[in-house]
């Protein structure tokens, strides 16, 4: 050859034959604990057994106890620990000495399709595919047997041999439970569990074999099967190929290897699987998982040698710059035609609310949750989800942005930072319309009054319909702890009032002649003041709580003063009486009178202010008369 460009000459042609006689029975044994110069060919093999499905082999080999390198005392001690002092046919060491050892196999590789055993004979190469490659290592299962013997002896010493004295066990109730249907993921996890593998290994029985040495006649006979039994080319069609087929075998086309995904949660992606994706998908997947990250940390998660310029181009498609850090875009987390997993709010509304939260973090590092909730008007679960993605709660400071400001990135990439700032200006114009309108308390009160005036006609119509529907319903309550306590309905009121309201002789009874106009206005104003004061102190209050506060307020007021206006009319006997309740006209001769019950000392303020009791007695003319006692009714 004058130069390297010339073709290599053919020196020799060798015929290759494929032997199939031992194709599914040929194993390669390796002994990694010994050098190749120290083989076990001359060692006495006592027994051999195999589990073909698991490709598991065990060999028992004799130990030369007469060797000067053998410690006799140690061998006797091991045999004593394993078998004990008593002799038994099942003893591991029948000579009371460790005179043998067991070699157990493990698979060196699970895919042996590329391995074969070859024999070169008379210018012919005969190859046989390997079924398995096994590494034989010493087994120390006898130590486990020694430990079990020790535990058995300790249990026998503690409990004694009481098996003959044991009484028959009592019958116990057994609870029958039915297992629920197993999912595919649960089945895969169970199959790959250590307990399942141990069970499967124990189910396959051992097949005992007979060992033949290297120089044995049977071994020589079996070695003949390594040669192809027929020289006919038609039976070796696997090796008879056209030049094109042979070239494709030497240089096969690239094929995507199917990667078996490990069993795990559905939302977890391994780094090995991640790096098989395109760069833009890698960045998008990482951002969806981390939510917020510094650019330097993102480069560390990607494969070494990845171009930072390409990463910058990709990350701007799926993330926005906040405080020098990259935060995943809202439309990536909440795609179109999706909704919130917490409240079912559409994705468009979620994106607008989350963009407002991120925009606020571009202005300051902390944000109060109430401020954000008042603006975006989303359920609390969604607002909390937005904040937990990019911020952490701080005492007395609200929610602080999760990562420190990355000044280094802003300094190295000013063009990217400026471009992101312009994007935020555009987002600001979209989210600023969400700013809350500042409305004072007086404006809210005025708006409520206007709404009440608009609805007054409908409310009056509803009230008239209720009045026409039937008689008034009066709640029955006891006025004191003693239900049978008599009521004084005839004695005059010492304070000159009827039911706590000024009567005709009272100095403040001028409202009776003027139809209660001035008193009504004063009472209404006092009631309004109480309501405003209550709701300024308690922004949210239940109806029962409001009743309780009003009862306490009524109990603390001076005698003869009330927030409820009551219009009295003069009667024939000179006393001012309340307007008659809507009752059956034929059952009442005189209009009901408002009288004050005699309060007991044991009455609570609420009991003294809210008694409603109806007593019926016969009038002189035979008609029924109704007396109603009341201080206030809600």
TrEMBL record:
Which ranges form a coiled coil?
none
Name the residue ranges with Basic and acidic residues bias: 145-156
Q: Which GO terms describe its cellular component?
A: RNA polymerase III complex
| Residue ranges annotated for the DNA-directed RNA polymerase III subunit RPC5 C-terminal domain, each copy included | 435-564
> What is an annotated GO biological process for this record, any one?
tRNA transcription by RNA polymerase III
- Residues in the signal sequence: none
Positions of region (Disordered): 145-184, 456-522, 603-634
State the name under which the record lists this protein: Polymerase (RNA) III (DNA directed) polypeptide E
Name the species this protein comes from: Takifugu rubripes (Japanese pufferfish)
